[in-house]
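Notes continue from the previous slide.

Worked example: a multi-chain complex. Inputs as given:
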Amino acid sequence: MNKLHLYILAAALASIGLLLFSYKAFVLGFPVKPATTATVWNVEARLKFLADDKPAKASMFLPSSSRKFAIVDEHFISGGFGFVASWDEGNRQATWAVRKAKGAKSIYYQAVVRRVHTKAPEPPSKAPEISPPQLEGTSLAAAKSLLAETKAKSADTTTFVGELIRRLNRPVQEENVKVLLRDKPTTDRKVRLAVRLLRYSGIPAREVNGISLQEGKHDFSKKVPIVHWIEVHDGTHWVSFDPTTGRSPVPEDWLLWWTGPKRLVSLEGGSNLNTLISVSPKIEEGLSAAVRRAEISKPFLLKFSLFGLPVNTQAVFKVMLLVPIGAFLLVILRNVVGIKTFGTFMPVLIALSFRETGLMRGVILFSVLVALGLSIRFYLERLKLLVVPRLAAVLIVVVGLMAVISIVAHRLGGHTGLSVALFPMVILTMTIERMSIVWEERGSYEALVSGIGSMLTAALAFLVMNIKLIEHLVFVFPELLLVLLAATLLMGRYTGYRLMDLYRFRELAKG
Amino acid sequence: MLAILHALRKKGVLAINKRNAEYTLAYNPRRLYPLVDDKLRTKQLALENGIAVPELYGVIEVEGQVRRIPQMIFDHDDFVIKPAHGSGGEGILVITGRVNNGRYRKADGTILFQDEIDHHVFNTLSGLYSLGGQPDRVLIEYRVLFDPVFEAISYQGVPDVRIIVFLGVPVMSMVRLPTRMSDGKANLHQGAIGAGIDIATGRTLTAVWRDEVVAEHPDTGNSVSDVQIPNWDKLLDIAARCHEITGLGYQGVDIVLDKDKGPLVLELNARPGLNIQIANNSGLLPRLDLVEKNYADLGSVGERIAFAKEHFSVEHLDRLGSA
């Protein structure tokens, strides 16, 4: 009776979705396929600190355009702070100051970094004047002997620097290096030491700090570490050296942020400084070009699209928009195939956490967690607890197990176990509870069938949600969700047999 | 696979998607569900309409009332504890007698202490067995002593008769026989046997046990087919009247046969299961279509039962099948 109504609604939704999609794809030129390499990144630095109720001043170095990268589209968000940009020893620096500030303050710096391909040869630069550093006592002796040994094993400046770096990085350090590095052989310290030693030998060297813009690897919620390396002036140009391998030049995706031994941020009149740098690769050149075109011709359309959101919200949506895909898959698996799962959307949420852990590791961690939780749940059954306290007890046990698994996995090597924390613990608790009830009431067979069904569904949802093309399509063309909605509505009236019905009623097919 | 699909279509087997979309959603208004989902309301409704149900000994609504259980059952040695919102027979505790020191004997012979019973009631109250886990009420009621006709073909527990009623017409029926596997419970998915019943005569047909067709009871070895259900016309009458009582278009009526009190309505179900088709070796769809077509002409309960007996008798269906 309502079928016509439903068909019209579904057709309307699907055509709106497809129309918007084709308009964006064919008129505005949004790319339909994801590009393989990113050439544009969104970089964000966030400073957080507690102001002390007196004048506060924070300074941060800023990246400058170089021959490898162009810095475009910078934004400074500093709520109430006065802002000045200046130069400090060859680095660009931003200074935020306020007469009086109190409480937690956040300052944001956002920039779009674009890879540039410069063909023209680099113009020569003059070697800077350097004053040799002062060394005394044991350090002086150690430095002298280390430099002498290094010199003996090298032919020119390049091999000299390479050899020095190799010596600083030996797994078993020689005495001289130990004396110089003291007890904290971090890369940062090694870089600083190498620069001092090179300068002491009369080679113009400097410490360079930056970040690695690895393609497609960053999640916006994660902190990007600062990398340090060494540059040596060979008389005409600065030449870079990787401080751990001695290789020259450093990888292409290392973005120079500032030079010199100073810290990235200096703060006066505040405490608890927390700096977070995050990077997300912008989908690709073609896309931002299309966005820019649309900005000019159809500003309204863009203002109300996902691209108008702050970058880390965009990253959240990149994941969120995959949930409908998983949900639709679930509809098919349950209503057309007839797979049994625990909880309607539990497999989709598990699949989302598989994105962090990887499929195999995720499946293993999930099984281990459920199996352990289940055995503890069976023990709790004997204590005859009321339902809500029992659920809370299982939840506490699940959280505890997550911590234990993380620690054990971490000790055994690698950070694989750490990602266990990303499993949705409440969902896990409910899964354990339901599984144990089914186990008791309908037997282990039913419980395992549903358990394995949930796992298979989660794995399948993960595989589908992990397809790059799908991820790209839903993010760039969220209007396709209308098409998905239309298909889901139609599935809501699918009254045919499920695949499992054929098995269930097979006796009836016999005669 | 396609052959199975074709055979099922030909037989008119109703599967879950279609049942939900075209029968339960279409004929059972949501607002009527509480009448059948809450066994206490079903009981009251049945009594108001002169339909016999197992006598209620007491209701426990909040945790504080649990200590009143011994008082509620003081006069009774045997009783049944069940959740008001239970589904699929879960959470039902059958006590068949008392042992000294205030202990109880369960249907399978195990001994229970009072605190174990209390724990079960607490669990039920906090929603362990109810749909969606909402807080529930607990009913303590008369334990049905089943009719001797079933003695040879059931293992502990109480067999019950399920009749699917569509628009007031009984369309298909089966008797569910507990087995050792079902732990004395009369639910097919827990391992009970379902034997189809000829609507016209009330005699059992083929039987199904765990998706397989069987001829004998697995525990007693006695034949489960061609058993006459006593009081069959009375059962059909009760089932047909439930349509007016609840207003539900598509429902399952569960009736037990007590040796002293006769047919008693145990519960009504707004989403009755589909395995009844396997037990009858017959699809529901042709019968449902027939009722839909003739609904306008069927008025009284008597007319509807006559219609069912005429069209859904095994004899008539066989004739149709061979034609």
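Summary box: Chain A has a mean pLDDT of 80. Residues 219 and 280 of chain A are 6 Å apart (CA to CA).
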